[in-house]
Amino acid sequence: MTKLAASAWPKADLASVGMPSSSVSLAELSTGDLAEAVHAIKNGHCYLDWRLFQFALSMFDHAQAVSKNVAVTQRSILDLEAQTALELQMSLDSTDHFARSLLDDAVCARDRLPAVFSTMRLGLIDRARFHRIVAETQLVRDDETMALIDQTLALQIMGLRGGVSSMSITKTGHMARRLVAEYDPDAEKLDRDRAKASRNVGFQALDGGMAQISITATAEDVRLVRQLLDAVIAGLCPEDPRTKAQARSDAAIALLQRTPFTCQCDSDGCTAQITDVELDARAARIVVHVLCDATTLDGGDQCGYLDGYGPISGDHVRQIAERDDSVIHQHDLNDLLEPEAQSDNDLDEAAVHRKGPRPDSPDECRADDPRPDPEIDENGAAASASDAGSDTQAADGVSPPRFLIAKTALPSDPYRPNLLTDLVARFLWGTCSIPGCERAAFACDLDHVAEFDNICPSNGGPTCICNLLPKCRFHHLMKTHLTGFLDDLWIDDDGRYHASVTTPGGITVELLAPNQWLFPQLADLRCRHQLAQQSATGSAASTVDQAPERSQTRTAAKHARRRAERKANYEQRAVGQARRQAAEEAAAWDDYEAKRAIGEPPF
Ligand SMILES: [Zn+2]
Ligand SMILES: [Zn+2]
Ligand SMILES: [Zn+2]
């Protein structure tokens, strides 16, 4: 091979892999056709990455085979890696560092993550996502635990178990991190301790007479600082000429240099509110949300979720809970249920920690959200208990199930979700619900997917978990103003929450709620809108027959969690066997291919 060898790609017929034939003029293709071609390229990237790993491994094997014939002193594993990396470096035209990293990932794919590796072949993840998984799982030492994590991740990536079918690199990392934290808490702790020990401040010269400072600190501290900067610049008057990014930079420098941060408008009537007193008042209302199961606070391994960051281990949750500035609030999903308010005091299903006092106004803690904060109605959530009971009669005269998700809106304002509904809707999705957007859920608007009808609420979309999706301001505006942009939200028969987005070009992307693991009880609950919809389509009877009993207590909720875990373990066992038996493994992939073939959304 020489580097000047002609590329065969221009002559290859790529129509067989879903790309338009070279004889077709692109102008003749619709946006949908082009999107399919783009998607085929994405699948191809993943597949070629898979193939590249295999080639690299084969090169490595060859190097090992040859080394058996040479002197012992030359057989060190490092030499073999270096030799193989050299071949890769030359053929890829890459750096030595890139080639070695590629080979490391390939060896991991074979030895530690074979099931996840298979999903590259299916076009589901590329090398960047694989690399992120390698990094998140690198400290897992026990082979069996590693195999369990590998198989579970592969299932999640394939959307066969609660995973997201549309995955950013960040969300792929979240999936792996959560599994490591729950299956191997020691590895997670070690990883976190090492990471924490490496906190630092970096300085780098940039072009144009600029330089960069980067501060590495715990996720919760960085989250607080970020919100602090937003709280500072929120006080600028509308005439200030800077972008938000510029203003944040100026505010951070001013804070670090202990110089005043001022509005830069030339207006005589400047309305800036950035005196120390005003800044302190806003800073005191900053909140960083963490949600976890109550058992996690008692020492359990169940992960929590830090808004703006992702899953964090039980140990990490407890560290945050122990901070002086943490406040713990306990909530019970049963408070959403009809027909009656919970009467006992067993209200400790879930907990939210927050920093600082409860905000008086959302404009302070969610700078760009114009709506009043539902959290100020925290006590009202319980008080609204018996308000929504009168219209839960299912159609066809069938008695509704005894317990339904029904108490979701404020009795005083049906447009606004109550506190608990607000929390569930945000944490369930974790970020803006548009695939690929990582804006933190608490910095998003809660959007009524089916529009709310202000004049006659019963005609419009409900204020309920079944109809509320977090959307960042940008995507919220896009939905509102871009003709043909459509989103949807639905609950399947297993109680799993799905969303989809259709672009004006006709491309539909579907995903499962990435954080349903935080609310295993939801799988057993149905809301009255969902039941009404099912009865309208004729399937109400069976649903009502199987309607879940209300999980009365923490114990019952625990049972729900266990049921979910059992189901998950059953699947894990099934896949464990499959891994040992190649035929069964192949069947699992075939099943996935079959699902795709019968019209499951392709991405
Ligand atoms: Zn001003
Ligand atoms: Zn509903
Ligand atoms: Zn967004």
TrEMBL record:
Record's compositionally biased regions (Basic residues): 556-565
Keywords, ordered alphabetically: Endonuclease, Hydrolase, Nuclease
Compositional bias per record (Basic and acidic residues), positions renumbered to this chain: 357-374, 592-603
GO molecular function terms listed in the Swiss-Prot or TrEMBL record: endonuclease activity
Keyword Nuclease applies: yes
Domain DUF222: 83-322
Amino acid composition bias (Low complexity), ranges on this chain: 380-397, 571-586
CDD domains, sorted: HNHc (cd00085)
Region (Disordered): 351-398, 537-603
InterPro entries found in the cross-reference section: DUF222, HNH_nuc
Domain of life, per lineage: Bacteria
Name assigned to this protein: HNH endonuclease signature motif containing protein
Organism of this sequence: Gordonia alkaliphila
Upper lineage: Bacteria, Bacillati, Actinomycetota, Actinomycetes, Mycobacteriales
